[in-house]
TrEMBL record:
Family (UniProt): Belongs to the leucine-binding protein family.
Keywords: Signal
Family annotation (PANTHER family): LEUCINE-SPECIFIC-BINDING PROTEIN (PTHR30483), PERIPLASMIC BINDING PROTEIN OF ABC TRANSPORTER FOR NATURAL AMINO ACIDS (PTHR30483:SF6)
Signal peptide residue numbers: 1-20
Protein name: ABC transporter substrate-binding protein
Span list, region Disordered: 396-415
Domain Leucine-binding protein, chain residue ranges per copy: 23-368
InterPro entries per the UniProt record, alphabetical: BCAA_transport (IPR051010), Leu-bd (IPR028081), Peripla_BP_I (IPR028082)
Signal among keywords: yes
Family matches, as Pfam families: Peripla_BP_6 (PF13458)
SUPFAM superfamilies cross-referenced by the UniProt entry: Periplasmic binding protein-like I (SSF53822)
Length: 415
């Protein structure tokens, strides 16, 4: 009897160890194909690096992390199927995306399953604004935050200029244009015209038609509210039409991969914003950020882009919340995240409690001349940081957020 008891105890102990060692699945919903696939690749790389580091430190709550991933192709309908499939495979949380339409749709489906969704590249105001909900967190800044920082810089350096907008016709493009119009005083659409192009699926002829109208206008500033390969296609046509030589071009949300795809010669002088660049950790004295840049570069042979930093940060922040709460339960994690302040790859950041927006510094950047880029290591020193704005100043206030929610008929607290 004593032997049987000991044997049963041993079996139970091994069972507990096996259960404790069962991996925790994290679901990455990202664009492996489509116009934003380069941003998706960077997210995958950042996520894998974070998971490997955390597992080397013992995992989370005694269990290793494992990455599940599916291609959303920047299409909401695919994203919904991805969430269903990864939830069926036991995903404990979701993150990723480079389209705000995808992030919003996927976040809503995750919420139906009472699972958290962290947006990586989702700049639309709607993500944490009128479409914000309890289980959605956004790591990057919003269009409002980009526009406030960018508008402050443009108002000082390019006062009184005429603008022409070419805008991707979906939630990110539309809220980006409206926010930038507000902060540059260009609300008058007759003086500052706009052409909307389809997303996804815009043809080269759509960009050519829009940019031909821009060339024929009296505009001084051309705003391309386009992203990923869409921006690259438009820039090539803009160069053919002479717009890159006689207009200041603004791309409100720039990424490293956009400059790489188009080439720094074509992108030289373009102004936009970034929530993070690989130069930021050294600029701000972030030892942890500098280690990330070093380790990422050694592993992949390229500098990390902002989308890689976002995915890396999300994995670490979710893991930290799980450790602090001692739980994988979504509601416990929400409580651990709300209001939490931390420093990881830059200065202090915070997950704001009332809208789950990450409050962080926004950088206005300008693409450097090609010869300067080519003199740099890896030929990837693309951005000059010309201005920055701290997160609390850039982000909408509680009153502004509630006004947006009220106008959309949404509750004044996250549900």
């Amino acid at each position: 009897m004593r032997f049987l008891t000991a044997a049963l105890s041993l079996v139970a102990a091994f069972s507990c160890l096996a259960q404790a060692a069962e991996p925790i699945n994290l679901g990455l919903n990202y664009p492996r194909t489509g116009s934003y696939k380069e941003e998706g690749l960077a997210q995958m790389r950042g996520a894998l690096l974070a998971i490997d580091e955390i597992n080397a430190q013992g995992g989370v709550l005694g269990r290793p992390l494992h990455l599940l991933s599916k291609d959303d192709a920047s299409r909401p309908e695919k994203a919904l199927r991805n969430i269903d499939a990864m939830a069926a495979d036991g995903a404990a949380m979701f993150f990723g995306g480079a389209s705000s339409a995808v992030a919003i749709a996927a976040g809503e489906r995750a919420a139906q399953k009472k699972l958290l969704y962290f947006g990586t590249l989702t700049y639309s105001n709607d993500t944490t604004g009128k479409d914000g909900q309890r289980y959605m967190f956004r790591e990057c800044n919003s269009a409002w935050m980009s526009a406030r920082a960018l508008g402050n810089y443009l108002g000082r350096t390019l006062p009184g200029k005429r603008y022409f907008y070419v805008t991707a016709n979906y939630t990110w493009g539309l809220t980006t244009e409206s926010s930038l119009r507000h902060y540059t005083g260009t609300e008058d659409a007759a003086r500052h015209p706009s052409i909307k192009v389809p997303f996804p699926g815009a043809r080269l002829s759509d960009y050519r038609d829009a940019l031909t109208q821009a060339a024929a206008s009296k505009a001084d500033v051309l705003v391309l509210a386009l992203f990923g390969e869409d921006l690259v296609h438009a820039m090539r046509i803009a160069d053919e039409l002479g717009l890159t030589r006689n207009h200041q071009i603004i791309a409100p949300n720039l990424t490293q991969s956009m400059v790489e795809l188009a080439g720094p010669g074509l992108m030289q002088g373009v102004i936009g914003t970034e929530p993070w660049t690989w130069q930021v950790p050294e600029r701000e004295g972030s030892a942890r950020g500098q280690a990330f840049v070093r380790d990422f570069t050694q592993r992949y042979g390229v500098y990390p882009a902002s989308s890689a930093a976002s995915a890396y940060s999300i994995v670490y922040q979710w893991a930290d919340a799980a450790r602090r709460s001692g739980s994988l339960d979504s509601d416990a994690l929400v409580k651990a995240l709300e209001g939490h302040r931390y420093s990881l790859l830059k200065g202090e950041q915070q997950w704001r409690d009332f809208d789950h927006q990450n409050i962080q510094r926004v950088y206005v950047v300008k693409v450097k001349p090609r010869d300067e880029v080519m003199r740099s290591p890896l030929h990837q020193d693309y951005f000059e940081i010309v201005e920055h704005m701290d997160g609390p100043e850039a982000a909408p206030s509680l009153a502004e957020w509630q006004a947006e929610r009220s106008a959309a008929g949404k509750p004044l607290t996250l549900q």
